[in-house]
Amino acid sequence: MVNVMDPICQKACKDVNLEAFCPVVKVNTENIKLIMISEALPKDIQDYFYSGKSASFFQTTQTAFADAGFEIDHPNELIEKGIYLTTAIKCTKKDYLVSADTIKSCSLLLEKELEVFENARVIMCMGDFAIKAVNYIFKRKFGVKVIPSGSTYRIRDREYIHHGIRFYPSYTQTGDSFNIEKTKRIMIAEDIRNAMEYLNRDIL
């Protein structure tokens, strides 16, 4: 994995807390078929996906999968099912939003992280930060913007496939907003269900 104390981040990322960096997660990269990218690290690293069953990021993700019809009891179960969770921004935010420069800078780190998952067939972009970061990556590597601009609810039902990967633009399943916006919860559940169905078809 990568460390956000990279000089790239120190130079460009002015609206995040550089001292907080994404923990290393041990995983068999060959087994990962679906990558779910959320927006940014939680303020408390104990709330990160793989910090345990009580971590808020895991709990909201667990709820999202339950809404989609998949019961998950522990973060390791997702890894066992070939699902890897990460964030587009590898630091905590200072404010609600971050700049395009920060997302672009951090996408270089996300790119390094994603490169190890050679068997990934689905990437779910959970929120605008994730959508923008993935677009920066694929624009650099292949000259392709994989997900078009536009409101998520307008573009999420279309099919986006590039270099053998199916992309799903959706809403973030982490944070307080997930607990109160029922319409987004419904759409997130639909996107997870569709992604899992596509992945099963692709494997078969």
UniProtKB/TrEMBL annotation:
The record's annotation in InterPro entries points to:
Uracil-DNA_glycosylase-like (IPR005122), Uracil-DNA_glycosylase-like_sf (IPR036895)
Q: Where do the Uracil-DNA glycosylase-like domain residues begin and end?
A: 31-150
UniProt xrefs under Gene3D superfamilies: Uracil-DNA glycosylase-like domain
The superkingdom listed in its UniProt entry is Bacteria
Q: What is this protein called?
A: Uracil-DNA glycosylase family protein
What is the organism field in this record? Paenibacillus haidiansis
- Print the organism lineage: Bacteria, Bacillati, Bacillota, Bacilli, Bacillales
